[in-house]
Predict the structure of ABC-type transport system.
Amino acid sequence: MKQIWIITKKELKGYFDSLMAYILIVVFLGLSGFFTWLYGNNDVFFINRATMQPFFGIAYWTLFIFIPALTMKQIAEEYKTGTIELMLTKPVSDWQIVTGKFLSTFLLIVVSLILTLPYYISIASIGPIDHGSVWTGYLGLLLMSAAYISLGIFASSITSNQIVAFLLALIIGIFFQILFGIIASAFSGVAGDFLSYMDMRYHYQSITRGVVDSKNLIYFASIIMMGLMASELSLVKRNLN
């Protein structure tokens, strides 16, 4: 656990030293605030109701784009600079490297979401709000982010090119974000049910509506573990070569 935390702190410090964290936070707060309060026919004032649903809608898509940009360098850069070999000479396992990098990006997302709490407080001050659905909405964003972070780290673990890692993470994400849901409508029976189950939007929207059941939690936990274990396997395979 100590090694994981050391890697997590190092990576988190790297985000802030390179200004990546500041850029993410400013752009995320700007976009989510604009679409929550000011834009079009879905902002809080237009629908005339105290709700965080406009925020959860835009945050879902914003994080979907931002997370591959955060994870693309996580392992790909280590390959390119050769520092991965240096890390592996230390008493640290592949799993600890992957987990430490996962936690650093996840904590950056947690910080970004904490900074949106003034939105919640402001909206709650203008009318009655369903507090339960707000907290489940934040839970949904955290679970969705964790899933895409694990998939992004996997994409970064199979190439030394950060742009390729970004595009791979985005393509994998598009399947979970859009394509599984579309393809599922063309199938029936077990295949259709399986493809529907793989659609991340279905699970996310269930949670943001306040429905937190074991099916949704198992889904996100499975995606997270699958991404992390695939990343570890990729590191092991590369080390053997």
Notes: The chain has a mean pLDDT of 87. The two ends are 28 Å apart (CA to CA). Residues 1-235 form one domain.
